[in-house]
Amino acid sequence: MSRKFLETEGPGWVAEGIISEEQRQKLLARYPPEARALGLLPLLGSILVGLSALSLVAANWQALPNVLRLALLLSSLTGAYAAGAYFLRRGNPDLGHGLIGLGLILFGASIILVSQIYQLVGYDVSGLLAWVVAGVGLSYVYGSRLLVLLTVLIGAAVQTYCVEALGSFSYATALLVAGGLGYYWWRRPEVVSSNVLAVGLLWQAALLVAATHSKITWFFVPAMLVYAVGDWQPQRAGGRALQGPPLVAAYLFMFGLATFGETDTYANVLRPPLLPYLAALAAVFALSVAGKRARGRLDTLLDWLLLLPGFYLPGGLPLAVATLVVLYAHAGSVLARAHRHEDPGQLTIGAVLFVAATMVAYFKLTWAFLDKSLFFLLGGVLLLGLSWYLRRRNAQVLAAAAPPVAQQAGTPPITPPAPSETSSLNV
């Protein structure tokens, strides 16, 4: 159930006497208004203005004297910050945060250009690390999701440069993104910031695996650590938003394993040492279970089905069957949870996952002997049967809950007439 649905249907319920106006207000209080989506105009404006300024200066950079170069950098940097502060004071947060974001971009560009002016050759990331520190600090000062997004992108760019150009992983950059922005997210678990931070942390984890030349399945240990942190978040919406990207990554991996894991050629890429890998994954799993129990979210425990290490099985039929069982079980858990919570969005996701698993099962197991028309017929019958069952269960739940709700709304219960009254009426 969503606030928009309550706002649309609530007045009709009050008019029909199903609930009272006081109860409608209490229901609305349980579903606060969602935060506004991240404004794309300030973000795109900051990026385009920054790129245009950089391209103009870059075209004439070599012809400018060093003093003029420094003056240009300082004036543009201070001008962006001053203009952002001005519009924030005037009550225009979108434009103000956009200009502050532009100043953050110019700050990083200034670091790079100053090093070129004075030919400061560096073999570490200390200069660019200051850029990440500035982004984290500005995110706290202004509390802007735009600055959080820019800082995550800056951290990803700095880490990519370290891995690709310097051949090393910057643990300081990863800690700043995970720790600095992680604490910011914990205090302000907005959905957009949660998704952005989760994607940024997954990128950092992927670069760590690449820099250390580890098996790619080690990626899921830090990825599911991000998921486990979401289990401890008191606000459910923010926690689930943080868990979305890790779950998508795990599902895509399991889907790819079911589709392409036909031979043992993947063994050298996917199979880390068994005991260390399982021990690390079990530790993260225990942390996740503790968080689910503490926050009353054990109904999402079956998300961990996607992390079953089926890649240790031999390729071919055993691996295909095992991964398909996992995909079906996960889709069923999503559908069951959506039914319990009456969540149409999750119900749609569960149906899509069920269809995807069925398609893989057909192409992997029954393509050679099951006619396509029969396959689609069976799939359609299964989905129609599932839809009928869920609608029937939903109607039963609503019918069972209707009398108590009507009584709470103030409708007097209907009592049968007394025996004496009945006899007099018959006469």
TrEMBL record:
- In this chain the DUF2157 domain maps to 13-147
Task: From the UniProt entry, list the residue stretches annotated as the region Disordered.
Answer: 407-427
This chain's source organism reads Hymenobacter montanus
At the top level, the lineage of the source is: Bacteria
Name residues in a coiled coil: none
Q: Can you say what this protein is called?
A: DUF2157 domain-containing protein
- Any stretches that span the bilayer, and where are they? 37-61, 67-87, 99-118, 130-158, 165-186, 244-262, 274-291, 311-335, 347-367, 373-390
Record keywords, A-Z? Membrane, Transmembrane, Transmembrane helix
